[in-house]
Write a structure and sequence with these properties.
By secondary structure, the chain is an alpha/beta fold. The chain contains eight helices and ten strands. The strands form three sheets. Strands 3-6-5-7-4-10 form a six-stranded mixed beta sheet. A hairpin with a 4-residue loop joins strand 8 and strand 9. The longest helix is centred in the C-terminal third of the chain and has 18 residues. It is globular and about 50 Å long.
Length: about 210
């Protein structure tokens, strides 16, 4: 495996890159974020990219476990969305920072969406790891899987998907000198998304590392 000019060169990875989901140079990779597509096939995600969707991630792992690179690794993708406050989620805020966070979250006269976006902008001014990963410095990996409204969870990743996501995460960790237990995140833990998004994937990777 090698990475040159943002391309992941390996016989385990195919390339199908979409310029429409690339949004400027990413100078540093500091983390990896695990996503689920809420779809039953990788083709529907690729068709979305083809039709001009601007939101996407760097890799897609389809229902068969095949790994497809969909964006250059030296380009930012809009895959994280609205950040949560890391220190509030982890109960590590200073007294002053907690006051600031709560003020942004409960500001009167604004919709919840506006307040959440204001807090996200506040978080993005911080340096990682004092905040959660952002679009500016993280690689996104999408894994095909449908969300169940009744179960409030995504379909369990197949054995092939588990093997593929574990393999590529470990390759990326090695290449970018990241740490598995502190630089790999489930999307639902860091942003205003379904709380379960990516959690099953992270559990698989951490379990395999034991």
């Amino acid at each position: 495996m090698s990475i040159e000019n943002g391309i992941f060169a390996s016989d385990k990875v195919s390339q199908d890159v979409y310029e429409g989901i690339e949004h400027g140079e990413m100078s540093h990779v500091r983390s990896i974020v695990l996503h689920r597509t809420d779809s039953s096939s990788g083709l529907s995600t690729l068709n979305g990219y083809k039709s001009g969707r601007s939101v996407g991630a760097h890799f897609l792992i389809d229902e068969s476990g095949a790994i497809i690179q969909t964006a250059h690794l030296n380009q930012k993708c809009w895959h994280v969305g609205i950040l949560l406050s890391r220190c509030k989620e982890e109960s590590t805020c200073s007294e002053q920072e907690l006051l600031t966070v709560n003020k942004l979250l409960h500001q009167k006269g604004l919709s919840f969406g506006k307040r959440a976006r204001n807090l996200s902008r506040h978080e993005n001014k911080k340096n990682y790891p004092h905040r959660f990963p952002s679009n500016e410095d993280s690689i996104g990996i999408e894994v095909v899987g449908k969300f169940s409204l009744t179960k409030k969870n995504f379909t369990a990743p197949t054995q092939q998907q588990q093997e593929s996501v574990a393999w590529i995460v470990n390759e990326l960790i090695s290449h970018y000198s990241l740490k598995l237990r502190s630089d790999v995140y489930a999307h639902g833990n860091i942003a205003r998304k379904e709380e379960s998004e990516g959690v099953q994937l992270l559990e698989v990777i951490l379990r395999e590392a034991k």
